[in-house]
Amino acid sequence: MTADPPRTDANPAWKVLGSGGGARVDTPYEAGEGRPEIDCVVLNPPQRLLDIGCADGMVSKRLRQKYPGLFCWGVEISQAADEAEKHLDRVTRCSLTEAGEAEIQLLPTMDTVLLLDVLEHMYDPWGTLCFLARHLAPTAQLIISLPNIGYAAVLQDLANGYWQYQLTGLLDVTHIRFFTLFEMEKMFYETGFRIVERAFVVNYCVDKHKYPPNAFPAQVDFGGVQLIVQSHEQFVCLNSQQILFNIQRAEDAVLSPAELALRHSSHPKTRV
After folding, report:
1. How far is residue 185's CA from residue 175's CA, in Å, rounded to a whole number?
2. Integer Rg of the chain from CA
3. CB-based burial of residue 185 (10 Å sphere; 0-12 exposed, 13-18 middle, 19+ buried)?
4. Cα dihedral 217→221→226→232 (10° resolution)
5. Rounded distance, CA 240 to CA 152, Å?
6. What single-letter DSSP state applies at residue 270?
7. Please, which residues bridge with residue 72 across strands?
8. Beta carbons of 156 and 128 less than 8 angstroms apart
9. Which of 147, 157, 213, 233 is most buried per CB count within 10 Å?
10. Distance from C-alpha of 153 to C-alpha of 134, rounded to nearest angstrom
């Protein structure tokens, strides 16, 4: 028998979906989010920025304040593009793969691309990354934020039989794809990139002081789900809701054996 179901409000998240195929009929995320947490993975000062899924343009606006003279181009298909146009130099109102020749010619001139909580909303994020790999300059940096479905609180609910879609967050009702850390990394390498930098956005599910870096391997009780955690990095990942990346295009010749395995080896065998 499963545990008592988690308490929730009377309006399930699916009610925010439109009747015409699942488009959202509200804007749940707060306007004006500048996402300063991404700064740790922006390794090269941007001069020409492409923000895919730019929403109201506040991230680009904040980066322009940090990097004066920054050229900002946004891609946004929602009505938030109206606000983004007030802050960005250029806004495209369709997906890049549907854009015209002018956008294709502009892509190689961009040195930084933002994909902040965007890929999980796409039916084919792999295709989008392949498209960017074909058209971006080899030195362009892609700054990516992805929700971590391997977060321990999600595993706890799953073990109890629940997968409750929410208005926002890891189980946002508009998410189409779900990724663990390994699946994120494999996606990047298989589509022509390598990881240059990585950072975890941590929200601890347990008392971190009980598990210093030298404590592993250790059995950790995440509130009903007990896991043998092999390393401190795995512990941090299990306590991270988001994972940030800086990735760049890379040919096989510059990859390590471990990276080549991510790109070319078959997926490790799973139970399903």
Report:
1. 19
2. 20
3. buried
4. -30
5. 8
6. -
7. 49
8. no
9. 147
10. 38
Give the model's pLDDT for residue 5: 57
Mean pLDDT per block of 10 residues along the chain (272 residues) reads 56 76 50 85 98 95 96 95 95 91 95 97 96 97 98 95 93 96 98 98 96 96 93 98 98 98 94 81
The predicted pLDDT at position 27 comes to 52
Largest separation between any pair of C-alpha atoms in the chain:
60
* Residues 6+ positions from 2 with CB-CB distance below 8 Å: 160, 161, 162
Q: Where are the beta strands (DSSP E) in the chain?
A: 48-52, 71-75, 90-92, 112-116, 141-147, 193-202, 218-221, 226-229, 240-249
- Asked if residues 117 and 241 have their Cβ atoms less than 8 Å apart, the reply is no
Placement of tokens 């109102």 in the chain: 93
